[in-house]
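Because discrete structure vocabularies remain unfamiliar, we first show an illustrative case, written as a sequence plus integers encoding its fold.
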Amino acid sequence: MTFSLKGQLLVAMPDMEDERFKDTVIYMCAHDEKEGAMGLVVNKRMPDLQFADLMAQFDIKVSDHVEAGHADPYKQPIVVGGPVETGRGFVLHTPDYQTADNSMDVDNNMCLSTTLDVLRSIAEGDGPEKALLALGYCGWEPGQLESELVRDGWMVAPASDEIIFSTPMEQRYSKALKDAGIDLAFLTPHSGNA
């Protein structure tokens, strides 16, 4: 493979066959020819689950004090990261917070952590400046994602902190398309042949 989608967005096209991914934006955390690919959906809020409720399940107290420049735990969104291992948590965050053994650099301005340490830090108000908690992930076997790209199920778009952390959840799909130069009004749900 001569390319990697690590650090990019996958945006579902209108004719996406898998209903689970309709109008979905996925941030790609890993992609290589031997291991396949892994990403997190960043625009599908977990229904009826708040950060404080999730922390209570781990006996982690959420602080009322948030240090300046850190994510507010009471405003911390939780997304459905994907259909694989839906009980497993992943935190996509800015690189101002890292633990040596448990944080992976995805690109220059994004890290991925998978342990309770980062959740505890967010709950205490001294975690990363920006964070997105996902339950579950999207995974592809080697060659599977490339096959889906050829069938036009996905469009690759540039990732940005703004889309992942600041854009309202319900606007992330259209924002990802707009940033890639695509107007949603001009997309049709059916591709044609010439």
Remarks:
- Strands lie at 8-12, 25-32, 36-41, 78-80, 84-93, 103-107, 110-113, 131-140, 154-158.
- The longest helix spans residues 116-124.
- DSSP finds five helices and nine strands in the chain.
- The radius of gyration is 17 Å.
